[in-house]
């Protein structure tokens, strides 16, 4: 791959390894923060700021889409068990359109850094979004750089989020604790 690539960035820590690999390869990188899935708004702001902090470290411009979580929330609540695939699809489709608008040769996503995401599904959705928008999807498995991203995000003081993004993933995070009886001090 050569030229200009758009990187969809879900958060600062997840952007470190992809940005390092893309810039090391001599590519011109355009950043996009388009994440209506993140709730609540305060969390979106923390992640936006973390993404901007990391993009600035790499000398990459960051486009930030307006925040409108309601359509995502409606879809997620309609099908809680199947919420992830439409979420990935929506963000990858947005990234493909912006990549085409920005004159990029390809696009990719920091979703490919996470050990917790379905890479096969993301790759298939990325390819489909790219075909629909007329821009190539660049798949790379950034999970092998997991430790690097974690260490650098801590060293740089980048906000590290404790859950995927949507309110339902936050509930999943606390599922076991919510079933436990209350703790009474005394």
UniProtKB/TrEMBL annotation:
Residues at which [4Fe-4S] cluster binds: 10-11, 84, 87
InterPro entries in alphabetical order: QueH (IPR003828)
Root EC class: oxidoreductase
Reactions the enzyme catalyzes: epoxyqueuosine(34) in tRNA + AH2 = queuosine(34) in tRNA + A + H2O
MF terms in GO: 4 iron, 4 sulfur cluster binding; epoxyqueuosine reductase activity; metal ion binding
UniProt entry keywords in alphabetical sequence: 4Fe-4S, Disulfide bond, Iron, Iron-sulfur, Metal-binding, Oxidoreductase, Queuosine biosynthesis, Redox-active center, tRNA processing
TM region positions: none
UniProt pathway: tRNA modification; tRNA-queuosine biosynthesis
Domain of life: Bacteria
Gene Ontology biological process terms in this record: tRNA queuosine(34) biosynthetic process
Job description of the protein: Catalyzes the conversion of epoxyqueuosine (oQ) to queuosine (Q), which is a hypermodified base found in the wobble positions of tRNA(Asp), tRNA(Asn), tRNA(His) and tRNA(Tyr).
Protein name as annotated: Epoxyqueuosine reductase QueH
Gene symbol of the encoding locus: queH
């Amino acid at each position: 791959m050569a030229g200009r690539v758009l990187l969809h960035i879900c958060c600062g820590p997840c952007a470190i390894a992809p940005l390092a690999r893309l810039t090391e390869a001599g590519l011109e990188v355009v950043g996009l923060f388009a994440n209506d899935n993140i709730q609540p708004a305060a969390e979106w702001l923390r992640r936006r700021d973390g993404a901007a902090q990391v993009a600035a470290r790499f000398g990459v411009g960051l486009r930030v889409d307006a925040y409108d979580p309601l359509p995502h929330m409606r879809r997620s609540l309609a099908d809680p068990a199947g919420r992830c695939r439409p979420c990935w699809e929506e963000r990858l489709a947005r990234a493909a359109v912006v990549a085409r608008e920005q004159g990029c040769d390809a696009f990719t996503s920091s979703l490919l850094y996470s050990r917790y995401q379905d890479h096969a599904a993301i790759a298939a959705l990325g390819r489909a979004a790219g075909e629909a928008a007329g821009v190539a999807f660049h798949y790379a498995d950034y999970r092998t750089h997991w430790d690097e991203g974690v260490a650098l995000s801590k060293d740089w003081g980048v906000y590290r989020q404790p859950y995927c993004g949507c309110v339902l993933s936050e509930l999943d995070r606390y599922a076991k604790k919510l079933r436990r009886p209350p703790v009474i001090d005394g």
